[in-house]
Amino acid sequence: MDSIAVASSDAAIFDPKEKQKAIYLYYDSQYSDEALDIYSEEWQERILYWHQKAIDSAATTLSSEKNLENLDFGGFFLAHPIAAFSLWQLLQSCYELDVAVCGNSKADLNEIESWQKMNPFKYLRDCSVQDKWRASLELFKAQIKAKSEDMDVQEESWELRMHDILIGVEKFETAFESLQENFKANLAGKRFADWMIARIDEDIGKRFSMIHRLLEFKESELGDANFAEDTDEPGPLDPAQADIHVAFEAPKPKKRWSFRKNQDKPRRPSASEPKSPRPARTMSIPKALNLKSGISALKEKFQKPKNTKSRKAR
Fold first, then answer.
1. How confident is the model over 193-205, as pLDDT tens digits?
2. What gap in Å lies between CA 238 and CA 76, rounded to an integer?
3. Per-residue pLDDT tens digits for 78-100
4. CB 142 within 8 A of CB 148
5. Helix (H) or strand (E) run with residue 3 in it
6. I need a surface site. Which of 89, 96, 292, 308 has the fewest CB within 10 A?
7. Predicted TM-score of the model (pTM)
8. Distance (Å, whole) CA 222 – CA 277
9. b/e for 120-154, b at 16 or more Cβ within 10 A?
């Protein structure tokens, strides 16, 4: 049974630089620049705030996966600063993706900001966040449908939004891989580390499944038009090739976009498709390499918007 609490309750002798140094040395040893700002005044203030907040707080006992939702980020950081820093980076990528998917107005941005005040694993599983994602992507589908029905509809805004979503997914995937490596090195033997990775894998996987369905919808609505524009040849796509990859290049075996465990196994190729060996798994903990390879392929298929600056809320 693992318990997470502040090691020392004496604020007078607490020095945040010890935590900062540990984080910096680890990331420097990994030839990573992710912790370059760890000595900033902003980080020092954060650590001092978390320590002060944790002094009067009871320890969080992680006796089961369900207890994760009670874990305050500050308490986790004080107990395991190096591992917690990688969780911080992953959460920032999640919040950026929230803005890309749901940040359509000032009110939306305010709501997204409120999510950032939740405990990390409560945020990951929160139903209101999932519902907001679902509603926002339904509105996005309406934009795509309008484009398919009227080719004169202004498309820059939704193309830029799609671009931001794809960039956000890629940032998350990079952060998730980094977190897994970090946890493996710094939380060895801790059962809650496996629970945390599984929770991220499952809950963010649900959001990525929504993006997957959006891409399938986009393919069904705009595949014909985009294919004709790219090849300068009129005519519809072969109905037998209704895959998001086929809309822009030669047929390939369909890839899964969610990295949930029950979607880890690739589908069996048809007789007309070349057989390829299943990639070897190098780690026992959940990985998202299938997602990363899919995102890399997808980014090559979408035309980059003329204005590549981040989409701002209206």
1. 999 999 999 999 9
2. 53
3. 999 999 999 999 999 999 999 99
4. no
5. strand 2-4
6. 308
7. 0.71
8. 32
9. bbebbebeebeebbeebbeebeebbeebbeeeeee
